[in-house]
Amino acid sequence: MILRKIWLSLMSVIDFFLKYPIVLFSIIMIIGIYVLVSRIRLAIRQRAVMRNPSNETVQAFMAQVRRTLIHNHPNSWNALRQTYYAIKDSENVDFELRVKLCEVLQKKGVNGVHPPRQHYLQNEEKIKQAGQEGEKKVAYALKWLDRNRFKVFSNIKLSDGGETQEFDCIVIGDKAVFNIEIKNYAGNLTIDQEGNWYRVVNGHKSGMENPIFQVKRHHKVLNNILESRIPIVDLIVWANIESVIEGTQYSLAKVIKVDQLTYFIEHFNEERSLSKDETAFAVSKIQSHMQK
To answer: Are 41 and 101 members of one domain?
Structure first.
């Protein structure tokens, strides 16, 4: 019954077009013009991206790709690939936008396009800026510690007689000395069972350096300066509060986010209490070993 209705409807449509062929011709012409105009606009958007790669030109190109029926021909695919690879690693275009363009092209059937690697290969200036932003976040958190109980040293250089080491933060408290290493990156952090560190940004996983060697190196220098008389607690502080951190149980040093830092230090109670003489000794030793 349903098939019969479909058949009758189809025959009615055919009869209509046979009776009024000009309508069919007009529809075909409109579709043809739309396809032609879309391809012309796509070519214009491609040239704009090639001449001036920017967020605006890439967004316009991506919108046009979505609207255009891509011709199944090697020349069409090659042109789209060339446009993508012209901006794949461009710092003039946001990373998230480049990832989105890659996804749009893949959905359109373009082979041979791969997601960009985020500039974990960032230039040193950007890395430095991220580090400074992380230090500011930690400094603000530590500002709220009770000054009667804690002494904070930030961004200092210490030497035990050997190679000078730069410390992000050292906090001297009434329970221990806290050796703090700050990390500030976009994305989420995952630590696997072997202790490998990975960042995940927009679903793309990339390995990063495990800071444990740096932390333990600082621990050794600090312990030598304090003559092994004061307990030291190593902390790796992740400054991006929006990140999700998984696998901290596999880290050889405790990993916490900056919004947990103050509470952790104030409530740390795994070691004996330090006397006023011991805290004064720690402050004096660190001050006397500070390098310019």
So the answer is: yes
